[in-house]
Amino acid sequence: MSPTLVRHQLPHSGSMRCDDPPVPARSRARTRDWAEIQERMLVPLYEAAYDRLGIGPGTRLLGLGCGSGLALLLAAARGAQVSGVDADESRLELARERLTPDGMPEHTRLVSGGLEDAAPADAPFNVVTAFHPVGCVSTVEGLTASLTAAAGLSERGSAVVLGGWGPVERCATVGVLRVAQGPAGWRPSRRDDLEELAELAGLRPDGSGRVACPFGYADLASAVRGLLSTGLFDAALEAAEQRQVEKELAEALHPHQRADGTVWMPNVFRYLIARTR
């Protein structure tokens, strides 16, 4: 059960990123915000897909855009052998800490390179995951290329999990994300986004599901930090001062703040199970 984590130039650096990694200092801060605040919001998505596929001993899983490694950790806890690739070195460092808490035991192989370096030495992958939600127009081409390459390192008929936002009317966070909307930022998901991506990557759809992934925060400040850690607001940050973006984000979050100060936004996420040919 040897975790392998690889730095790879994917279009997303984590579960929800849409662009290149930020400067190192900002990246480290956002990595902690992502890992401590935001990443856990997607655990129901990870678990639903793992339950459906029966992830466990015998699973050789490759996580594309593995981020800080929570999804890999959950799979490893089920007995899977996990490998991960990501463009953000800061998030990858944290994933290494999580998956190898006692240092670097002999059976653990951590390398830096391309997708080919992530392949198990003894057998090809039989599960590939791309949990970062589709919804970033500028990254579809890059994600398609990564999925195609990953399929080439997998057994025929292997499962490929694609994650995305559910129907707009069932995602309260959509109204908040509109602050990030623009040519280089987030856009609302379309009904067939995942199927179209699978087709572009030469994959065969084989079922789908929906799962509730509410976004809950201790207070407004935590909500702002968590959402900024996704990278979806970076285009807005380039166009305006951070203080202004934070102000607009806080205003958009205000309707979701409860009397006790917590912030709660119910969402539905969707996943597609596809198969390599």
Based on the model shown, name its key terms.
about 280 residues; 9 strands; 7-stranded mixed beta sheet; globular; single chain; alpha/beta
Short description:
The protein is α/β, with parallel strands linked by helices.
Task: Indicate the proportion of strand residues.
Answer: 15-25%
Number of DSSP strand runs: 9
Order of helices and strands: EHHEHEHEHEHHEEHHHEE
Radius of gyration of CA atoms, rounded to a whole number: 18 Å
Major beta sheet, specifics? 7 strands, mixed
Strand order of the largest sheet: 1-3-2-4-5-9-6
Tally of helical segments: 10
* Coarse structural class: alpha/beta
Query: Roughly how many Å apart are the termini?
Result: 26 Å
Principal-axes geometry comes out as globular
Residue windows where pLDDT falls under 50 for at least 5 positions: 11-23, 104-111
Q: Averaged pLDDT, please? A: 85
Helix content: 25-40%
